[in-house]
Amino acid sequence: MQAIVNISLKEGVLDPQGRAIARSLGDLGFSEVNDVRVGKQILLEIDETDPARLRQRVARMCETLLSNTVIEDYSIDIADET
Amino acid sequence: MQAIVNISLKEGVLDPQGRAIARSLGDLGFSEVNDVRVGKQILLEIDETDPARLRQRVARMCETLLSNTVIEDYSIDIADET
Amino acid sequence: MTQNDHLMTFDDAAAMGLSRDEWELILKRLERTPNQCELGIFSAMWSEHCSYKSSKKWLKTLPVDGPQVIEGPGENAGAVDIGDGLAAIFKIESHNHPSFIEPYQGAATGVGGILRDVFTMGARPVALLNALRFGEANHEKTRHLLGGVVAGIGGYGNCIGIPTVGGEVNFDKSYNGNILVNAMAVGLANSDRIFRSAATGPGNPVIYVGAKTGRDGIHGATMASAEFSDETESKRPTVQVGDPFTGKLLMEACLELMASDSVLSIQDMGAAGLTSSSVEMASKGGLGMEIDLDLVPAREDGMTAYELMLSESQERMLMVLKPDATDTARAIFDKWDLDFMPIGQVTETGRLVLFKDGGIACDIPLAPLVDDAPEYDRPQNLVPQRPRLASDKAKSDKPITDLLQSMLGHVDLASRRWVYEQYDSHVMADTIAGPGGDAALVRVHGSQRGLAITTDCTPRYVEADPETGGKQAVAEAYRNICAIGARPLAITNNLNFGNPEKPDIMAQLAQSVVGMGKAAKHLDTPVVSGNVSLYNETDGTAIRPCPVVGMVGVIEDVTMAVGSRFVAANEEIFILGQDDSQNDGWLGASLYAAHQGITAIYAPPPIDLDAEEQTGKLLVQMIASGTVTAAHDISDGGLAVAIAEMSLHSAFGAHITLPTSGHLHGWAFGEDQARYVVTTAVGPSLTQAAQKAGIAISKIGTVTSKTELQFGDNDTISVEELKNLSEACLPALMAG
Amino acid sequence: MTLSSLASLRVAITVFPGSNCDRDMMVAVEQLTNRRPALVWHKQASLDPVDLVIVPGGFSFGDYLRCGALAGRSPIMNAVMDHAARGGAVLGVCNGFQVLTETGMLPGVLIRNAGLRFSCRMVRLETGETMSSPFTQGLTAGQSLDIPVAHNEGNYFADEDTLDRLQDNGQIAFRYVASDAEGPANPNGAARDIAGILSNNGRVMGMMPHPERAISPLHGSSDGATLLSKSLEALMS
Ligand SMILES: Nc1ncnc2c1ncn2[C@@H]1O[C@H](COP(=O)(O)OP(=O)(O)O)[C@@H](O)[C@H]1O
Ligand SMILES: [Mg+2]
Question: Does this complex have an ipTM over 0.95?
């Protein structure tokens, strides 16, 4: 099964990359852009058929490795979950 | 309105980062992980009320700046779109 | 009979860049019609990039010998003796087209590729340089390309941990649609432990190591051999993605393996991947090779023989091992978590035989791939004689310091700090002089010895007079090496030109190689390696010709080297290579002329190779004896710019005496060659030595503790002001 | 303190795939102590008893995911954490600092440079008023050191409470200060100009600048040698 982990910077953490992109977009004429935040999206292909168990395992992966909880939040999407 | 752009490497393009993460997850005991691909997720806060127009503008942003279409694909999610 | 029933036609060959004659020759040599894989192999090996078909005739004229040469052109990189039983191994290579399409990855993989060429020879890389050309500063693509290329070069070099110590960046509108990204790597090895690529010993195992093969950059060598147009942009192959992390592991694993006694021959997979590596190894050894493509570690399912053979996936090597060394080798690659796979063996057949899915995917003789590779004597137009520019025609009424402000604040001459601070220039802790000076200086680890390295080319001159421009590139590199006190040893070159099928371009290529050869021979700096990049054109417009020279020199004691900054107040400033009577200078093809809006092409400054040699040698002696305390060669922007540059990053200024007659701006901004600005605390010793050696010398001023540049008594500017202009230029450009 | 006495000091340097300042650090320490430190491979799950572990600079595991993240979870770092838990001294330089924050041995995190570019240049550091620590006790508060940086992610970040605590406890070992070198004093936008911090007990230090690249006048500064040798001497006594 597939799991998607979205990792974003916690609110309040400065995102210089997002700011730079917002500025560039403005320079390019996209003046309607107010704010940009950049996060990561991690796609995992996993040998696991039970969505609940999959979610649990992926949460463990996030806590141990995939996200740094000092500055990042994560959310998990399981493709075939209802 | 908010738009979310997900940027991923095109199929066939090497993802060294994904490989290194997959290997580390394996070493950490997550042996069920078969494959990892890493992409970017860009959240845009935009002054625009018409979802269709928003999508169009964001697509333009992707083509001009946000994604490198030589090696990346992008997809756009508009929060309030039906 | 090969398994692939789908036989090729001339149309297929043409799509791969082969001409009708070349197609006919393939049919004749094979005595049958090739399949897709076979045709792909021919087209790659006969591409301009691999076969040098347009340039070979001229490359053969370059001097390649000398007592210092251990390995000349023909191997992955050249090698020269630097004393103490050590060899400096170096080469330069272009990644122009990929960098235009994807600047970060194009530049990064360029660095990765040139590093593999160097460590393939058994050398540990110790320095990286790069020669870059971008379009006009205000061109819409320049910021994006410059930002991406610089980040990519840094991205690879910084991560793998080899210092990037020098290079050059220039801007000109002829590169708007076709930038140049040339990367040079220098490594060190024991002279008696250099590895070569010729396969030996039929029956010996052929081993694939490194990263897996994917569908990236398929047929890149062919792309590098074609012009750009809007059409090619859409059918371009996927660019390769560099993986400096795997590159680092591969480098460490290969060097560890080479320290054991296991490797018979080794070749990196660069342009044309598995094709060129297997063909070159087998043919250089006068042998054959058999490979089972099903064993090649693949990143994707269902790759065809054609794709496997022509993929340019990065971080891969091919080796022939001693038959009993496989286990030792495998253990090393396991330790570094890299693929290690015996995929075939050396044979006696003189053929390349590839197996796939239980059948034969390719069975072709090797000789025609290499020996019958076409070699053209392409027609050239006569190079027009350019008139000499009279200094009066370039006259301006502005004071020298006004011109200095506009020139040093312009992208042509402004500080490159914005670029080189993105490069880790001192990892390995042996960088004695990093970017920002004349030549870079890198200490040989654990000794006092140092390597001096530089890259140079002035396309303005080459365009105006290719032969003189070719000579000048060597001469300027020579001066940069001498200016820090090192002895020039040898060069590598990267010939960047437009479409050689056009007689004007062919003349640029041929004549500049002639000039380069003459200078290299005269200055005893033979050519030990190089690279050719042709078809640098977009929609029919060629780049300004850019035959880049990378030079390596040696200094016995790095503590004796000097820099180009002023070091002490009250020292005297001299021009070495010019006498007191000179009161004008050569403004044709100069930066000054360009800044005066002169667009017509005038003759560039002539090169006097005797003067270059004598002056350079004297300077090296004067530095070794401690007589000269700082030195800077005079190049773009002439004397005034050289003096300003010497003060910019010092704590000193200068008071310069002007000539009382003649043409002041010609004198200040002329680009006459074979000259250096030097400082000394012992003026009489220096003048005496120069007179004895028959070298012109002229005292022009004094270093001052007041941080101002004073030209005569009425034209003064603060060093701080100039420095701010110079430092602000690139950051302002990049901030947009 | 003489060289021969420092030679009984046991120093280990961790090596990850992608480390690239391990050799430079080894050379620097060997030059100062006359004894070659041990290089320990990341797969090793235990450490012989040592007086100091150095986690060197580089791009461990390519810095993929986040810099220092993958190295932070390698077997050797468990051993290093045990060593630190027993009161052992640990020094992390550049990528090593990033690894130490990823393991939680030091608070905060190092994020992308504010300028979004790799930055390689000489900077000036000022020693903080610190708690008792082997890494700063040989230096005086306010002492300045010229040591180069070379990094893409050296922008120290922690929440305000953490920053206040670091400051109040004397855990800020080094700050970037103005010098005559080109460019802004703070090369990366680090909070409160922080270049290096200490752990709660002062036995673990992380710093972005590379002392091993400033050990001789030929490097343009010997201040890195000062910092390292003072630390080694303190660990000896
Ligand atoms: N301009 C040149 N001058 C001298 N030698 C050259 C030049 N161009 C290529 N060579 C030599 O030809 C050989 C093949 O070069 P190249 O195809 O670039 O090697 P690789 O396959 O490693 O990329 C090398 O030995 C190279 O040094
Ligand atoms: Mg090669």
Answer: no
**Cα–Cα distance measured from residue C128 to residue C317, given in angstroms and rounded to the nearest whole number:** 21
Which positions 7-66 of A are in contact with B (Cβ < 8 Å)? 7-8, 18, 21, 24-25, 28, 30, 32-48, 57, 60-61, 64-66
Whether the Cβ atoms of residue C487 and residue C619 lie closer than 8 Å to each other: no
Ligand with smallest separation from the Cα of C224: 1
Residue by residue, DSSP assigns B21-68 as HHHHHHHTT-TTEEEEEEEEEEEEEES---HHHHHHHHHHHIIIII--
What residues form DSSP beta bridges with C364? C352
Mutation target for D interface from C426, C428, C719, C726: give the one with most D CBs within 10 A. C426
- The rounded distance, in Å, linking the Cα atoms of C301 and C342 is 20
Low-confidence residues of chain B: pLDDT under 70: 80-82
Percent of chain C with pLDDT over 90: 90
SS3 state at D10: coil
**Nearest-Cα residue of chain C relative to residue B13:** C216
Instruction: Enter the tokens of residue D224.
Output: 């890195």
Question: Rounded to the nearest 10 degrees, how much is the dihedral formed by the CA atoms of D100, D104, D107, D108?
Answer: 80
Dihedral pair phi/psi, residue C735, rounded to 5° = -75, -20
Q: Nearest 10 degrees: CA dihedral of D193, D195, D199, D202?
A: -110
How many A from CA of C181 to the centre of ligand 1?
16
pLDDT in tens, C666-708: 999 999 999 999 999 999 999 999 999 999 999 999 999 999 9
Residues 6+ apart with CB under 8 A from C449: C82, C83, C84, C86, C443, C554, C555, C556, C557, C558
C-alpha span between C15 and C232 (Å, rounded): 12
Q: What does the alpha-carbon distance between residue C344 and residue C202 come to, in Å, rounded to a whole number? A: 11
> How far does the centroid of ligand 1 lie from the alpha carbon of residue C116, in Å?
14
Given a contact cutoff of 8 angstroms between Cβ atoms, the answer to whether C512 and C466 are in contact is yes
Residues in the 5 Å CB sphere of ion ligand 2 = C 76, 117, 268, 270
Tokens of B54: 């928003």
H-type alpha helices, chain D: 3-6, 22-33, 69-72, 75-85, 95-103, 160-168, 223-236
DSSP conformation class of C660:
S
Ligand 1 pocket residue status of C527, Cβ below 6 Å: yes
Nearest to D52, CA basis, from D24, D102, D92:
D92
> Which single residue is written with the structure tokens 């003064």?
C716
Answer yes or no: pTM beyond 0.90. Answer: yes
Taking only residues 35 to 74 of chain A, the set having a beta carbon closer than 8 angstroms to any beta carbon of chain D reads 64-66, 68, 70-71
3-state SS, residue C393: helix
Spatial separation of the C-alpha atoms in residues D227 and C689, rounded to whole Å: 45
Pairing of strands D119-127, C288-292: unpaired
Residue C215, token pair as written in the block? 């569908």
Is residue C378 in contact with ligand 1, taking CB distance under 6 Å? Answer: no
- Using CA atoms in the order C718, C721, C724, C729, what is the torsion angle rounded to 10 degrees? -120
Active site (catalytic) residues of D: 94, 210, 212
Identity at C454, one-letter amino acid code: T
Taking an 8 Å cut-off on Cβ atoms, the answer to whether C248 and D219 are in contact is no
Nearest to D65 among B17, B27, B28 (CB): B17
Ligand 2 centroid from CA C109, angstroms? 13
Residue where the block lists tokens 């020996």: C371
B61/D168 Cα distance (integer angstroms): 46
The preferred substitution site among C496, C509, C529 for testing ligand 1, maximizing ligand atoms within 8 Å of CB, is C529
Strands (E), C480-536: 487-496, 527-533
pLDDT over 70 (residue A80): no
Kindly state the tokens that stand for C399.
Answer: 């004071």
Residue C699 contacts residue C683 (beta carbons within 8 Å): yes
